[in-house]
Design brief:
homodimer; Rossmann fold; 6-phosphogluconate dehydrogenase C-terminal fold; 6-stranded parallel β-sheet; 3-stranded mixed β-sheet; 9 strands; disordered C terminus
């Protein structure tokens, strides 16, 4: 197994795959990251030299979203035929369309923590979490099977769908919410100083929850908007329509409609399955029994 | 001390005030609630008869928002002059304007849990949490002092402001966010079945956080909209303007503006002070040392 990019996702993949008995080869830009990955037992060999990955059967490309396509292209220049490549980017249509390597399988593990880097990598990050694969008619069936087997080894919940359906769904539940949440903080900034000061004093857990992802890493939000632009705009437009209806119902004092909408939202939220607890922080505890 | 309404807030107030050595008289509509309040040591005497409260110096009215004004009016019919009344409703301008009892002091403790009722009441619920009092030019100074002293006894952070400023601030950080959050769930409902099914599988903690308060009790959301309508509409309009600007920047691929907005929201969120952990569930552990 090869891992290109030993950050939170790549490092956590490496930890689990090594634990499962695979020989893991890791590549990072930083020698210090390579050293940490070896020290933590995440990889058997780590290097800053990409040629190391020529010895792998399956390579996970775990670099930032906007470096995924150029990284796959660079690997394709020297890899032997038949080496399977999968990525972990949160957008799929744009990436799958630009990765012409015949043994490429688009992937997106729906897992993470608020931390970054190899130091934050944890065992079991993918266990019981959705792991999306987005094969197309161009995907080699054996390449898909080999990635599927790795996903199952990780204990993740395999979800097979097409790249555009993936992008629509994550726009709704992951990308558009960043902007929905950020706009609440931006509305606060527009308030006068006295109001903002009082609002800061009175903000409670409800406000903290609603603004959490809007106050996150700006670069990640930008990547989502850039690379999943069409679907983010569709989701935001649908969202704005719903909010405008609520606004209008409150304006018109149509309380029956307001309560009906809130009953619907309460019901819908209950239909989203409960989420597992966050994984333990590094250093991780003993691996959970199978 | 008198407590009218032995729910989560009234019950938690009663527990703390009894612990502090006050003689607490409790009134509830339900005899079973009265029995539970006595059993838990929250009150010295509990009754379904409001006349019990004629013996109190200070009464906290802890009934649902829309019953606050009629409850204060009913108390005013039989209470002796000089008995101080304070409420706990999350809206102040509308209530303060309709409570003509000369010794009334509007109040709003910014505390709570996801539970309801006397059974869910906990000691220390108000400790280190903001507790707003909204005196006006009509407020008796001694009445204000007696409520202030009780708030300080509870270990809460006293915030004095005027009723309209309170309503503007809570509209921004508490009431409007309910609709901002609910609209995200309603946008999900509008999606086709296939998309919604996939979205349910892929929803992560970020979606759970952003939709938490929008999926809450519909009756509470309705009360906020009804009783703080003007300020909720102002906040929602300010919110919609900010979201529309983000939508437009993404449409126009003005990435500099998108990243700048996300940097601003990240900075602003950091300026909201960190929140204390939730109080322990009932049965509560030993009281924290002073």
């Amino acid at each position: 197994m090869g891992i290109l990019g030993l950050g939170l996702i790549g490092g956590s993949l490496a930890l689990d795959l090594s634990q499962l008995g695979y020989q893991v080869l890791g590549v990072s830009l930083q020698t210090t990251t390579c050293a940490l990955a070896c020290q933590r037992g995440a990889v058997r060999v780590a290097s800053t030299d990409w040629q190391l990955l020529a010895g792998a059967d399956l390579i996970f490309v775990c670099v930032p979203l906007d470096q995924t396509v150029p990284s796959v292209a660079r690997l394709a220049e020297f890899l032997p035929e038949g080496v399977v490549i999968s990525d972990v980017a949160s957008v799929k249509a744009d990436i799958v369309a630009h990765c012409s390597w015949p043994w490429f399988v688009g992937g997106h593990p729906m897992a993470g923590t608020a931390q970054q880097g190899m130091g934050a990598a944890v065992q079991g990050l993918f266990r019981d979490r959705p792991y999306v694969l987005t094969p197309t008619v161009m995907t080699d069936p054996e390449a898909l099977i080999s990635v599927q087997m790795a996903v199952q080894d990780l204990g993740a919940k395999l979800v097979l769908t097409d790249p555009v359906a993936h992008d629509r769904a994550v726009a709704l539940v992951s990308h558009a919410p960043v902007f929905v949440s950020a706009a609440l903080l931006l509305a606060g900034v527009q308030a006068d100083t006295e109001l903002l000061g009082l609002a800061r004093q009175l903000a409670s857990t409800g406000f903290a929850d609603t603004t959490r992802i809007g106050g996150g890493n700006p670069e990640l939000g930008l990547l989502m908007a850039r690379h999943n632009r069409a679907q983010v705009l569709v989701s935001l437009a649908a969202y704005q329509t719903q909010l405008q209806k609520l606004h209008q119902a409150i304006t018109e004092e149509d309380w029956a409609q307001v309560v009906q909408a809130l009953q619907t939202s309460q019901r819908v939220r209950g239909e989203f399955s409960p989420l597992p607890p966050a994984p333990p922080p590094y250093p991780a505890g003993p691996r959970r029994a199978e």
